[in-house]
Design brief:
The protein folds into 3 domains: about 110 residues, Tetrapyrrole methylase, N-terminal domain (Cobalt-precorrin-4 Transmethylase, domain 1), CATH 3.40.1010; about 110 residues, Tetrapyrrole methylase, C-terminal domain (Methyltransferase, Cobalt-precorrin-4 Transmethylase, Domain 2, 2-Layer Sandwich), CATH 3.30.950; about 40 residues, no CATH class. The protein has 11 helices and 10 strands. Helix content is about 40%, strand content about 20%.
């Protein structure tokens, strides 16, 4: 019996009417639906009278559940993979199942559709040929601030954030990027109380505090592009120049500080040049 197909199905991020006909058909015709939370997916299935059996696939059981699902696929069963909302494996569980399906030679087919990141970027108005999707920042304050240091980029950055951290994250962004940098705050996209606001980081705290309900729900942030990224430093050229006056060890050490390249790798190159 030929193996079945793993369908990676994007589902609505809020408004259930956003489910595509192809997604509904895939959920209806599959033998099993792998869900991040079966209780959440049940609402969507009930809306479209879908009775397909569902099983849980979440961050706590992903490895064990993946093995069982791969076995079903190899038996010829078709499986639809969904997350609670949006596109699976995008800041959601599912990537391990997709990876193992590829390794087992199983057909993997995407059914594209809703994505909170794409939806927020589309209404940001930040004209750019690309954007960086950074997902969720670290929950711990120190790690979050360190992560923000790497996001000074010449293109927009899309972030997800939880309601209990949104105020702290916006304040950290204001401190890191300045009062004037703009940000799009998208709250509860496609839902009844959807709000989309583009403003400066200096105004963000006031906007958030203006209405008590604004610190509830699901958030997507789109940070406006920063300045042009500095040109990359050629580590080999720096090393070669330093070797004219320094030992291989000292040249590698200083070149690593200047360029950020791995010291061990530079030391190996320095020894090769010295020979």
């Amino acid at each position: 019996m030929p193996a079945g197909t793993l369908y990676v199905v994007a589902t609505p991020i809020g408004n259930l009417a956003d489910a595509s006909p192809r997604a509904i058909e895939a959920l209806r015709s599959a033998q099993v639906i792998a869900c991040e939370d079966t209780r959440t997916t049940r609402t969507l299935l009930a809306r479209y009278a879908i009775e397909t059996r569902s099983v849980a696939l979440h961050e706590h059981n992903e490895r064990a559940a993946t093995g069982k699902l791969i076995a079903l696929l190899l038996e010829g069963k078709n499986i639809a993979l969904v997350s609670d909302a949006g596109t699976p494996a995008l800041s959601d569980p599912g990537a391990l199942l997709v990876e193992q399906a590829h390794r087992a030679g199983i057909r993997v087919s995407p059914l594209p559709g809703p994505s909170a990141a794409a939806a927020a970027f589309s209404v940001s108005g930040f004209a750019a040929g690309r954007f960086l999707f950074a997902g969720f920042l670290p929950a711990a304050a120190t790690a979050r601030r360190k992560a923000l240091q790497a996001l000074e980029l010449p293109w927009p950055v899309v972030l997800y954030e939880a309601p209990h951290r949104i105020a702290a994250t916006l304040e950290d962004m204001r401190t890191r990027f300045g009062e004037q940098r703009e940000v799009l705050i998208a709250r509860e996209l496609t839902k009844k109380f959807e709000e989309v606001a583009r403003l400066s980081l200096g105004q963000a705290a006031g906007w958030l505090a203006a209405q008590p309900h604004r610190q509830q729900g699901e958030f997507v942030l789109v940070l406006a592009p920063g300045g042009e990224a500095p040109p990359a430093i050629d580590a080999d050229r720096v090393l070669a120049a330093l070797l004219e006056a320094l030992s291989p060890s000292e040249a590698a050490k200083l070149a690593a500080r200047i360029t950020g390249a791995p010291r061990n790798e530079l030391y190996r190159k320095a020894l090769a040049r010295a020979k």
